[in-house]
Amino acid sequence: MEIRNIAEELSKNAYPGRGIVIGRTPDASKAVCAYFIMGRSENSRNRIFVEENDGIRTQAFDESKLEDPSLIIYAPVRVLGNKTIVTNGDQTDTIYELMDKQQTFEQSLRTRKFEPDGPNFTPRISGIMHIEDGDYNFAMSILKSDDGREEGVNRFMYAYSNPCAGVGRFIHTYMHDGNPLPSFEGEPEKVNVLDDIDEYTDLLWKNLNEDNKVSLFVRYIDIKTGKYESRIVNKNK
Predict the structure, then answer these.
(1) Cα–Cα distances in angstroms (integers) from residue 137 to residues 28, 79, 108, 173, in the given order
(2) Can you tell me the distance from the alpha carbon of 187 to that of 119, in angstroms, rounded to the nearest whole number?
(3) Residue 196's domain is classified under what CATH number?
(4) Is this structure's pTM higher than 0.90?
(5) 172 vs 20: CA distance, rounded Å
(6) What values do phi and psi take at 173, rounded to 5?
(7) How many domains is the chain partitioned into structurally?
(8) What does the alpha-carbon distance between residue 48 and residue 17 come to, in Å, rounded to a whole number?
(9) What pairs with residue 160 in β-bridges?
């Protein structure tokens, strides 16, 4: 699979929805995770990312304008021991709680399906990074409707052991803008990542559609030590 330029992939797509990138820096020393949210409605755009414990949570920017919080307020990132979980919904909590009870990433997601927001039936995208004793692997998942059929759910899992340096895997909720919004198709795309967290954060944020982008989170984790640094960018300030 061709390694795509993440800047080009983002800049040519006005509405990929929510997106996750997980990979490894070119110098192979750090695990990379990025998560962004976009919005078309006032309710979706009325959000920011805030830090919480080892992860982040979405929060209404203007509480007076908050309408239905059920699908927009959640913890996208949580840390369970040496595992970092990132998702586009409250399945973050499902994965955290069931893996804490010794179930697997795949088993935990078998209890969930796509979002109940017909006719879009937004896919639930998830990722998990596992770093231990200098070893790094990750997995990604998408749960989506069966070609828009509410009664059918398709669950896809992708696992990556010893991932290549300089490569990320990119999965997002929608192929592009539309009514209804077309769900992501295919396996996570190969994209480039950078060694510098600030440079990569800037690259991602600048190339997300200006009208639709809402928030971006980026984390780099040292594979040897487990220490991490994070960046948050919010359009609402």
Answers:
(1) 12, 15, 18, 23
(2) 23
(3) 3.60.20.20
(4) yes
(5) 6
(6) -75, -35
(7) 1
(8) 15
(9) 138
Amino acid, single-letter form, for residue 32: V
Q: Which strands sit side by side in the sheet containing 83-87, from one edge to the other?
A: 47-52, 55-60, 77-80, 83-87, 124-132, 135-146, 149-161
Tens of pLDDT along the chain (237 residues) come to 899 999 999 999 999 999 999 999 999 999 999 999 999 999 999 999 999 989 999 999 999 999 989 889 999 999 999 999 999 999 999 999 999 999 999 999 999 999 999 999 999 999 999 999 999 999 999 999 999 999 999 999 999 999 999 999 999 999 999 999 999 999 999 999 999 999 999 999 999 999 999 999 999 999 999 999 999 999 999
* Owning domain of residue 217: 6-234
Closest CA to 7 of 191, 237, 197: 191
**1: in domain:** no
Residue 63 makes CB contacts below 8 A (sequence gap 6+) with: none
* Residue 75, helix vs strand vs coil: coil
Distance, in Å, from the CA atom of 236 to the CA atom of 175, rounded to the nearest integer, reads 25
Alpha-carbon dihedral sign for residues 89, 95, 98, 100:
negative
Sign, CA torsion 217/193/130/99: positive
Map tokens 């510098």 to a residue: 196
What 3-state class would DSSP assign to 80?
strand
In whole angstroms, give the CA distance from residue 100 to residue 197. 30
CB 81 within 8 A of CB 130: no
